[in-house]
C-alpha cells in the first residue's frame, strides 16, 4: 500500500470512528489499537529515524535523554534533576506559525529568550495542523499558504515576505513543520527544551467555554483527530533530542455549545489516559504532561489521597448520577505503562480564576497545594490551609509544573503584584518548573484583530527587544537564576 493510500484510509477511519469507541473502564482503558497502529504506519511522510541514528539515547550529550520521573523530580539519564524555567511562545492562532518571525529571525528570538536564563519553551499549537496534513494526503502546508489562510491574501503575502526578509533560509514553500524543525534545532543549540503543547483544535486564541475547543467532542475537538495528532507529533518528535516532553491538551473546560458532553473527572481520566497511551505507543521516551479541569486549575481528585473520582469536588462538572451506587474509583497512575515514570502534572493559575482565590499569598499557596502541588510531597502551607481546611496529602509523588500563570504585567506593577510574587516564592522554595505567559508582545492575528498588541508579552511588538527591559533585569532574571534551571553549558 502506498503511503498516500494509507494516509487516506486512516483519515477516513478517524471520521468514521464514534467517540464511543473510546469507552473507558476503570481497570483498563480500551483503545482502538488497530486504528491507532494504522495511524502509526501511515506516518511514512515523517522521516523515520531510529533512536540510535539520531543519538537520542546518547549518554554523552545534552540533554541526556530520555528523561523520566523519579518521585517528585524529572531526571535525565544520568540521574540528575532537571528544572525548567521558561516561557510560552504562541503559535496556535489562525496562522499556526510562531509569533514574531516577521520581525526577527528565529535564531535571534531564541538568543534573547536564552539570555534571560530560560531553558524551556512551550509551543502552543493547533492540532488542525495535523488534520490538514491528512486532508492533503500527507503534504504539509507552506509558510505562505498558512499566512494567507490566517490573514487573507494581501496581508498574508506581505507578512510572508517580511518573514523571509528576517529568515532568509526559508522560502514561501517552506512548510510549517520545517519551520518548526528549524525552531527546535536552533533551540537545541542554545540549550532550550521545546515542549509541544496541544493548545487548541481549530487554530484560534484560547480559551473559552464557547470557542468549540473546550472539551472532548466539542465542535472543533474531535477526540479521534486529537489522538491522531498526538501520535503524529510524538512520532515527529523522535528526531529531536531537545523535545523530551509534550502535552496532552491545554486548559480543558466545560463546553457551552455541546451541552450533551460529560465533563467530569471520570471522562477526564478516560480520555487523558487513552491520549497518554497514544503518545507512549508512538514515542515511549517522551514525558507526558497532563493538565487539569476548569482551565487547568484543578487536579486534586487525581493527586490527593483517598479521592473517589465519582464523588470528588469538581467545579462546573456533569454530576455522575449513580455515584452512590457504584463502587468508588480511585485513580492509580502506577497502573498505566507510562504512569510509573513518564507522567508530569501541569497546572495554570490566573487572577481571573472564577473559583480559586488569588487574593493573598497564604490562600494562593493553599490553593496551589490543594489543586495538585501536593504531589510534590511538600509541606502543606499552614496559614492558608488553616483557612481552607482542604489540604490533603498526595497519594503518590509526581512532578508538577506551572506551565502558565499571570497575567504578568511587564511594568513596575509587577513588583507589588501579590499573585506573581507569591508564585515566585512558591516555585523557588519548592523548586517548581514554570513557564510564563507569554513571549508575544504582538500577535499577527488574535481574537479577530490583525496586529493585536499585547502589553503583557515579554517581548515588545517587534520581538527584538523587551517590552520593559528593566523588569526583565530586575524581576525575571533574579527569579530564573534562583531556580538553578538545567543548563546545557
Ligand atoms: C537552513 O539552513 C541549513 C544549513 O545552513 C539547512 O540545513 C536547513 O535545512 C535549512 N532550513 C530550511 C528550513 O531550509
Ligand atoms: C457557541 O455558542 C455561542 C453562544 O451561542 C456562540 O456565540 C458561539 O459562536 C458558539 N461557538 C461556536 C464555536 O460555534
Ligand atoms: C471522553 O469525553 C467524552 C465527553 O465529551 C465522553 O463521552 C467519553 O466517554 C470520554 N471518553 C472516555 C474514554 O472516557
Ligand atoms: C489581573 O491582573 C492584571 C494585571 O496583570 C490586572 O490588570 C487585572 O485587573 C487583574 N484582574 C483581576 C480580576 O484581578
Ligand atoms: C492587515 O494588517 C494590518 C496590521 O498589520 C491591519 O491593520 C489591517 O486591518 C489588515 N488588513 C486586513 C484586510 O485585515
Ligand atoms: C523593541 O526593542 C528594540 C530593542 O530595544 C528596539 O530596537 C525596537 O525599536 C523596539 N520596538 C518597538 C516597536 O519599540
Ligand atoms: C539553587 O542553588 C542554591 C545554592 O546551591 C540553593 O541554595 C537553592 O536552594 C537552590 N534553589 C533551588 C530552587 O533549588
UniProtKB/TrEMBL annotation:
Compositional bias annotation for Basic and acidic residues: 49-59
Signal peptide region: 1-23
Low complexity composition-biased segments: 35-45
Keywords for the protein's UniProt record, in alphabetical order: Glycosidase, Hydrolase, Signal
Source organism: Coniella lustricola
Family of this protein: Belongs to the glycosyl hydrolase 5 (cellulase A) family.
One GO BP annotation of this record: polysaccharide catabolic process
Record region (Disordered): 35-67
Domain (Glycoside hydrolase family) ranges: 106-439
Domain of life: Eukaryota
GO molecular function list: hydrolase activity, hydrolyzing O-glycosyl compounds
Protein name: Beta-1,6-galactanase
Amino acid at each position: 500500500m502506498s503511503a498516500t493510500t494509507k494516509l487516506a484510509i486512516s483519515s477516513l477511519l478517524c471520521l468514521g470512528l464514534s467517540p464511543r469507541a473510546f469507552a473507558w473502564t476503570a481497570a483498563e482503558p480500551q483503545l482502538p489499537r488497530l486504528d491507532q497502529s494504522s495511524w502509526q504506519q501511515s506516518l511514512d511522510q515523517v522521516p523515520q529515524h531510529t533512536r540510535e541514528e539520531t543519538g537520542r539515547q546518547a549518554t554523552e550529550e545534552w540533554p541526556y535523554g530520555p528523561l523520566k520521573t523519579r518521585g517528585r523530580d524529572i531526571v535525565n539519564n544520568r540521574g540528575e534533576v532537571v528544572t525548567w524555567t521558561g516561557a510560552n511562545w504562541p503559535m496556535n492562532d489562525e496562522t499556526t506559525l510562531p509569533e514574531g518571525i516577521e520581525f526577527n529571525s528565529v535564531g535571534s528570538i531564541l538568543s534573547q529568550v536564552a539570555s534571560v536564563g530560560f531553558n524551556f519553551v512551550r509551543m502552543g499549537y493547533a492540532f488542525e495542523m495535523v488534520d490538514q496534513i491528512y486532508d492533503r494526503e500527507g503534504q504539509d502546508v507552506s509558510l505562505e499558504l498558512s499566512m494567507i489562510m490566517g490573514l487573507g491574501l494581501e496581508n498574508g503575502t506581505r507578512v510572508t515576505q517580511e518573514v523571509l526578509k528576517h529568515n532568509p533560509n526559508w522560502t514561501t514553500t517552506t512548510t510549517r513543520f520545517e519551520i518548526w524543525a528549524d525552531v527546535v534545532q536552533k533551540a537545541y543549540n542554545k540549550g532550550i527544551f521545546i515542549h509541544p503543547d496541544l493548545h487548541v483544535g481549530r487554530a484560534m486564541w484560547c480559551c473559552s467555554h464557547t470557542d468549540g475547543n473546550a472539551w472532548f467532542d466539542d465542535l472543533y475537538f474531535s477526540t479521534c483527530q486529537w489522538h491522531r495528532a498526538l501520535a503524529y507529533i510524538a512520532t515527529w518528535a523522535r528526531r529531536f533530542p531537545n523535545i523530551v516532553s509534550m502535552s496532552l491538551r491545554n486548559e480543558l473546560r466545560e463546553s457551552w455549545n455541546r451541552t450533551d458532553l460529560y465533563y467530569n473527572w471520570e471522562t477526564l481520566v478516560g480520555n487523558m489516559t487513552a491520549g497518554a497511551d497514544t503518545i507512549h505507543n508512538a514515542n515511549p521516551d517522551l514525558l507526558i504532561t497532563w493538565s487539569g479541569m476548569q482551565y487547568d486549575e484543578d487536579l486534586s481528585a487525581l493527586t490527593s489521597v483517598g479521592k473517589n473520582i465519582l464523588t470528588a469536588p469538581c467545579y462546573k462538572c456533569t454530576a455522575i448520577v449513580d455515584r452512590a451506587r457504584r463502587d468508588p474509583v480511585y485513580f492509580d497512575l502506577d497502573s498505566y505503562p507510562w504512569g510509573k515514570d513518564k507522567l508530569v502534572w501541569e497546572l495554570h493559575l490566573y487572577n481571573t480564576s472564577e473559583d480559586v482565590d488569588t487574593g493573598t499569598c497564604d490562600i494562593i499557596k493553599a490553593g496551589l497545594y490543594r489543586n495538585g502541588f501536593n504531589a510534590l510531597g511538600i509541606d502543606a502551607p499552614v496559614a492558608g490551609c488553616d483557612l481552607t481546611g482542604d489540604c490533603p496529602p498526595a497519594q503518590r509523588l509526581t512532578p508538577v509544573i506551572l506551565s502558565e500563570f499571570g497575567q504578568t504585567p511587564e511594568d513596575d506593577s509587577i513588583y507589588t503584584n501579590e499573585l506573581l510574587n507569591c508564585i515566585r516564592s512558591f516555585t523557588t522554595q519548592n523548586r517548581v518548573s514554570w513557564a510564563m505567559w507569554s513571549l508575544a508582545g504582538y500577535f499577527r492575528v488574535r481574537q479577530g484583530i490583525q496586529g493585536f498588541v499585547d502589553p503583557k508579552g515579554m517581548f515588545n511588538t517587534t520581538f527584538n527587544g523587551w517590552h520593559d527591559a528593566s523588569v526583565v533585569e530586575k524581576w525575571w532574571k533574579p527569579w530564573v537564576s534562583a531556580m538553578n534551571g538545567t543548563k546545557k553549558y
